[in-house]
Amino acid sequence: MKSEASLADGPALVHAHSPVQAFLERLHQRFAADSRGKVATYIPELAKADPAAFGLAIATADGQVYEVGDARTLFTIQSVSKPLVYGMALEDAGAERVGRAIGVEPSGDAFNSISLEPGTGRPRNPMINAGAIATAGLVGGATPAARLDRLLSALSAYAGRPLDIDEAVFESERSTGHRNRAIGHMLRNYDILEHDPEAALELYFKQCSVRVNCLDLALMAATLANGGINPASRQRAVRNEFVGPLLSVMTTCGMYDFSGEWVYRVGMPAKSGVGGGIMAVLPGQLGIGVYSPALDERGNSVRGVQVCEALSGELGLHFLKPPRAAAATVRARYTLAGLRSKRRRPAAESAQLDAHGHRVQVFELQGELRFSTLEPVLRSVVAAGDELLAAVLDFKRVDGADAAAVRMLEGLVETCAARQQQVVLTRVRRGELLARFGDELDPRSARALHFQPQLELGLEWCERLLLKRCAPVGAPAGPAQPLPLAEHTLCQGLSAADFAYLDARVRRCSFEPGADIVRRGDPADGIFLLLRGEVSVTVELPQGGSKRLSTLTAGMSFGEMALVTGGQRSADVRADTAVECGVLSADSFRALETERPGLMIHLLHKLLLGLGQTAVRLTAEVAALEA
To answer: Which residues, 6 or more positions from 65, have their beta carbon under 8 angstroms from its beta carbon?
Structure first.
């Protein structure tokens, strides 16, 4: 019975460097040595299963799959099929007809118990064999072949690939299913089955004998998590109106007489099967598939129960502990090619950032960070591959992060460190929102982690990193000497006569680091041509503090509006380093209108070009934030 599914049988999404993948591999290793339990033998063909087999898969509600171990080993679905076939019966016969034939109350009995309501003979619920046989009798189709085609088509839609029947297991089920035959005839006695029970029993034996693997179970669960639509194929497997009833009976009855404890400890609607499979659903978020054929005394996979409990506890998946309602976790996503820091850079550096800015990805996060809300972000970072240089995660609007999110962030740092990449966390302090963050982090990997108090500073840090990594070999460093006035952007292209005229009217001045060059409210009486050093333009905020508008370097100008409008300065300008400037007064500029109109036109043209570039940059930033 044991065989391997081909890679073409389902999604082949490999996440070799993913923190999620690494977590699953550690989890698999932790429970692989658990040899408790016994393989089912009451169906002879099931006794051939390898008790050491152990596979695990997770599929998200948007179709991403993680797998580990024997996740592609084929086995028979057995009772995991019961809620899915129940959904078919609801669609084909209608909820009222199904409700008359099958209850929804937990029985507290074993899966093969003869648990019927006194008087009516109605099975307690569709998850025990009596209810499942009644359910099989309600699957639509005019002939046995049509009903089988209906069943296989629906199960295949859940899995996202064509499924078939293990004929050897089917024959073994049919030849040894005496207890189920007895149940079938009792159901016929009470008119729960309206026709010869052999047809319903035949279909039931075949549904239990459908071959699946862990990936199939994970995608089946993810289909239910996604409202009945397979998240990989986008094919609808069951109508949305019946997803709630399916998940309800899985919650209350899916693990038989272990269901109450399962909900308490794991907290996900689930269904087990004696073939060793477990399918668990976290509504709206993900599905889990586990395969390990060694069973406990209740007929549930020993490793399956253990690993699902660990997944729920360590990743915070209990469905009664959902994250607080919020918009999408990623408020904005962009790269340095679309939005950069407020530091204005020379043309050569800007060109480098335009060309290579896609190598830095920025995620502005919001809401509650848990495994399910953070996983798409981790996936995006990992999917960027070796081309990625740095990932910036901004926490300003994050309300909280549970232990699973912290663990996944540590895993992201480990992954990025191994690929020589950097992780920059902005507007968050270690130990506050991220409690115990870094406790499990390898000190060697910690060098890939950086905290910045502001997003703006994080972007600038990444720009410096990018320019350093991508600078051409042998590229000269920035000018150590002051920039000659003739090489300033505003003066480039002037005739010798015009430059001499301008040079005579530009006053030189210098400032120490930290000195105020311009204060908001000062008279706007001239333009500053920056020849050496760096300055920052800032504004005071109403709630206190200040915000940087831009940082300028040699070759740039500030105070341009003084030449046009006059009035008062609208922002502060402070020297970040030792600064040298040339200052052209507003009076000198106005004199050009009569003395050197060509020079005035040249300067205005240069200023308009600069303003145009600023407008283009701001438009691109808005577009990046809206994307």
So the answer is: 10, 11, 13, 57, 58, 59, 215, 218, 219, 232
Is there a catalytic annotation at residue 86? no
For 586-616, what is each residue's pLDDT tens digit? 899 889 989 999 999 999 898 888 777 776 7
Q: 307 or 109: which carries more pLDDT confidence?
A: 307
What CATH superfamily classification does 485-626 receive? Jelly Rolls (2.60.120.10)
Catalytic residue among 82, 206, 271, 606: 82
Q: Is the pLDDT of residue 617 over 80?
A: no
Q: What is the pLDDT of residue 1?
A: 39
User: Which residues touch 591 (CB under 8 Å, ≥6 apart)?
Assistant: none
pLDDT tens by residue, 447-470: 999 999 999 999 999 999 999 988
Q: Which residue among the candidates 18, 79, 209, 550 is catalytic per the annotation?
A: 79
The CATH class of the 3-315 domain is alpha beta
Q: What are the domain boundaries of the chain?
A: 3-315, 330-470, 485-626
Nearest to 389 by CA among 362, 426, 360: 360
**468 is a catalytic site residue:** no
Q: Which one from 158, 256, 291, 334 is the annotated catalytic residue?
A: 256
Structure tokens at 157: 């839609």
Task: Give the domain 330-470 fold.
Answer: Transcription Regulator spoIIAA (3.30.750)
Active site residue 38: no
Catalytic residue selected from 66, 86, 158, 204? 204
Would you call 66 a catalytic residue per the annotation?
no
Q: Has 616 been annotated as catalytic?
A: no
> What integer is the mean pLDDT of 209-219?
98
pTM of the model: 0.77
Which candidate in 20, 169, 249, 274 is catalytic?
274
- Running DSSP on this structure, what letter comes out for residue 47? G
